[in-house]
Amino acid sequence: MAGTGQATAQQLTKRVVKTTATEQHMDFAKAKTTMKNVMRVQNPLAYGDSTTVLYEDFSNMYEGSIGNPDTSVELTSDTVSSYPFWINMIPVYTHVPGWGGHNIYPAGEVVSTADNDGGNLNTPMLDCSKQQGVVFLEFKARTDDGVADQPIIVEAAETYNMSPTWDMLGSGTVTVTPEWQTYTVSFYGAGNYTLFNIVRQQMSQDDEVHRVYIDDVRVYTIKPHIKMPTAMPYTDYKGSSFVAHWTKVDGATGYKLNVYSKEMSDDGTQTTKDYLKQDMDVSDTLATVSGTTSGQTYYYTVRAVNAEGQESFESPEYEVFDLEAPVLEKSTIEDTTYVAKWSDVPTAERYNYWAYFTRTADSDGEFTLTNESFDGLQMKDGSEVTWSFDDPTYYSYDDYFITPSSQAGWDAKNGIPYPGCVCVDGWQYIFNHKDAGLVSPDLDLSKDGGKVKVKVQLRGDKGDVWYNDGTKETRYTRCAVALFNWDDNIGDYRQAELQYTDSISPEAFGDYTINLTKGSARSKIGIYAVWAPAHLYMKNLVVSQNYKAGETFVDPFVYGRWLETTDDSITVPAKAYGCPITHKVSAVKTNPSTYQIKESRFSDTEEVGIVSGIESVGLSRASVLVENGKLMVNGNGPVSVYTIDGKMVYNGRTVDGTMALPLKSGAYIVKTKDNTVKVVF
Q1: What whole-number distance in Å separates Cα of residue 241 and Cα of residue 607?
Q2: Three-state secondary-structure class, residue 447
C-alpha cells in the first residue's frame, strides 16, 4: 500500500505518570484552557434573582495600606491543609476558611499582590452546582497610582474535592486601572468543589508587573426567569451547511441562535467574532445553518425566550469542527489489483481508507467473523519483536494496529506485540487513566438477534498498588469485555454491554468465552486490562455468530490509516477472490485547540468489483485436483489453503513434489508459490 504515513510519530511510550492538576502549581494560571466557557454578561441580575455563595471583604487584613502593603505579614502557611498550594491561607485572615494564594500581603483590609513578582489569590472550594452550573465571580480591583494598567487572569476549575484531575472551566483576562472598579466574570460547568483563581503574572517580556489590590470578592448564582438551553451536537455536516441542535426548555416560546467564526489578533490577545447568524429566531430545537465555508470552524450558542420576552443566559458555545466527506471515484479491478481514488477535501490533513470483501454463509450454524492468532506480529516499523515473557518491555504504543492481521483494523490501545500474542498495558489504565485494550473495527454484529460469542486465550501479570499509609496490595490482571454500538444521536459509539473476568493467571494462557447479547449493525468489541497495573496478553481470538445460509458479512481486509494522498493501490488477497469488494474513505484533521483528531463522515460505500476467473488459472509448476476426498497438489514449494471466509486450514510445503490433504466438502482457495486456485467439491 502507498501513502501510509502516520499523523503522529510512531514512538513508544514509557510508563510515566502524567502530571495532575494539583502538581501543576502556577501552570493552572497560564490560561491553558480556552475562553469558550467564560461568559460576559452586562447585568446578571436582569436574568433572575441572585444567591450569594461566598463573600469576603478581607477586613481581618488590617495591616498595611494601599501603596504600602505590609510584606512582613505571612498570610499563608504550608501546614494549613493537605493541599498546601491551593489551601494555604491562615484561617484567621478570612471569614471563611479554605482560601489560598502566593506572594500576597495585607494592605488595609484589602489583598495586595507583590510588586515586580505578581501573585495569585484563590477562593476556597465552593458548591456552585445549582442553577445549571452557571456561576458569577465578582470582585473589586485597582493598581497603585501612576503605574501602567495591569492585566490579570481570572479562571476557575471544578476540582472534584482536589481529585487528581480537574475540569478547567475557562479563563479570561481583565485590565486593572488605578481606579477601583468592579469586575464580573461568569463561568459554565461549575460543580460541588469549584475553585476560582485571580492571578497577576508577567504576560509578555515587555510586561512590567506591579501590585494589584483585590477586595470584596463575591461568588453568586442566579435563579433565572427561564432556564438556559444546552447546545447539542450538530448533524448533517456538508461543508456548506449543518444542522444545529439544542435541548427544549420548559416555558420557552422560541429561541435565538447565534453562529459565528473566530479570528485571533496577531498578538494573540484578542478574539473577535464574525457572525454568520445573529439572534436568528427559531421556534424549534434545531435549525439548518447554510452559507458556511467548507472546513472552517464555527461555533453556535442559543438562548431561550419566554412569553414575557425574558431571555435565558446564552448557552455555552458548541464548536463545529468538521470536514465534508470525500467522494470516491470509480475503481476497476485489473487482475487482482485496483487503485482507489477520491476527492481532495478542504482542510483535510489525512484520510482513512477501508476496503471490504463480502462473505456469504454456506449453511445455517456458527459463522466465524474474526479469527486472529496473533502469531508473527511485527513492530510498527516492520522489525521483529525482541522481548518475551521472561524479559518483558514496559513500553507501549498509544495505538498499535495489529500487523500482520487477517481482519484489518484491530487496535491495541497502549499495546505492543509480543511473540505469539499481543499485549496491552494495564499500568497505563490504572495510573494514567488511559484505555488499555484491544478494540475491533466497526463490525456488523446484528445477526441472531445480536448474540455474539468471543473466544480468546488470555494471560495476565501482577502489579502493586500503593496506598497513602505506605502499604501496598499486589493485584493480578483482570479483563473487561465491552460491546459498543453506534449512536446517531451523539455521532459516536455508546457502551451497550460490559462483562468482567476474575483474576487471570500470570503463569500460562487460559481459555475464555464471553457471550454478548446486544450486537447491532455497527458495533465494536473491546477487550481491556483492568484492576491491576500490569500486562494483559491475548492470542487466538475468535468472534462468531449464528448465521443462516445466505446471510452475508462485510469483512475489512484493508485499513489505510492517515494516508497523506488521495489515492491508494490495493492488492486483493486470495481469501477475497470471488467475493464482492467494496470500499469507503473519510477525511481527518487535528483540532489545534484540543489536539483531538476529527474524522469526517464516510463517503458512500462504493462497489469495486470481483476478482474473477481464478477457477481457470493454470499452474506452471503445480497442479491441483481432488481425489477420493483429498486435495492433491503436485509440484514443489509452499502451499496455503483457506476457506472462503478467510480461515487458514493448512500452511506448509509439498513433500517430494506432492501433497495430499483430507478436507471436508466445500469451497477452498489454494495458494501456491506462483498461483492461486479456487476448488469446490
Answers
A1: 28
A2: helix
- Can you tell me the distance from the alpha carbon of 195 to that of 165, in angstroms, rounded to the nearest whole number? 13
pLDDT in tens, 590-621: 999 889 999 999 999 999 999 874 443 333 44
Query: How does pLDDT run across 378-422, given as a tens digit for each residue?
Result: 999 999 999 999 999 999 999 999 999 999 999 999 999 999 999
Q: Tell me the three state secondary structure of residue 133.
A: helix
Residue type, 259: V
Q: DSSP assignment of 356-387, as one string?
A: EEEEE-SSSEEEEEEEE--TT---TTSPPP--
Q: Cell digits for 310?
A: 425574558
Counting every residue, how long is the chain?
Answer: 681
Q: How far apart are CA 115 and CA 578, in angstroms?
A: 79
CA atoms of 610 and 577, how far apart (whole Å)? 7
Q: What is the DSSP letter of 320?
A: E
- Estimate to the nearest angstrom the gap between the alpha carbon of 165 and the chain centroid: 16
- Per residue in 240-274, pLDDT (tens digit) is 999 999 999 999 999 999 999 998 877 666 688 99
> H helices of 319-462, where?
426-432
pTM for the model: 0.76
Report the C-alpha gap between 599 and 588 in whole angstroms.
5
Please, what's the b/e burial string for 123-146 (b: 16 or more CB within 10 A of its CB; e: otherwise)? bbbbebbebbbbbbbbbbbbbbee
Lowest mean pLDDT among 9-18, 544-553, 642-651: 9-18
CA distances from 599 to 116, 321, 495, 614, 631 (A): 47, 10, 20, 37, 47
* CA distances, 237 to each of 241, 296, 502, 598 (Å): 6, 12, 44, 13
